[in-house]
Amino acid sequence: MFVKFIGVLLASLVVWAIAAHSSNGAGTPQHYTVKPYDTLWSIATSHYGGDPRAAIYRLEERNGLAGTVVYPGEKLVLP
Q1: What is the pLDDT of residues 26-77, one digit of tens each?
Q2: 38 with 59: CB under 8 angstroms?
Q3: Distance CA 35, CA 43 (A)
Q4: Positive/negative CA dihedral, 67, 71, 75, 76
Q5: Are 39 and 53 in contact (CB under 8 A)?
Q6: How far is residue 47's CA from residue 31's CA, in Å, rounded to a whole number?
Q7: Sign of the C-alpha dihedral computed for residues 49, 52, 57 and 60 taken in this order
Q8: Rounded distance, CA 43 to CA 55, Å?
Q9: pLDDT at position 17
Q10: How far is it, in rounded angstroms, from Cα 5 to Cα 74?
Q11: What confidence tier does 20 reach under pLDDT thresholds 50, 70, 90?
Q12: What 3-state DSSP class applies to 27?
């Protein structure tokens, strides 16, 4: 009886693992067009809570920025 229970349990785990899929919980990426006088600091503080330095780092990484300079009209993907 115990062996059958373990077998059914293992089979259900295998089926669950095969049927599992990634979720779209993150949603679609948001885009932001840089306006005159915008800085990464101002963008980070207006779109993210907490320490803006972490958000600036994520913005730089996500958009492949070499530094903290952004130009008006530049399109950024918000992480």
Answers
A1: 678 889 999 999 999 999 999 998 889 999 999 999 999 998 899 999 999 9
A2: no
A3: 10
A4: positive
A5: no
A6: 11
A7: positive
A8: 9
A9: 73
A10: 60
A11: low
A12: coil
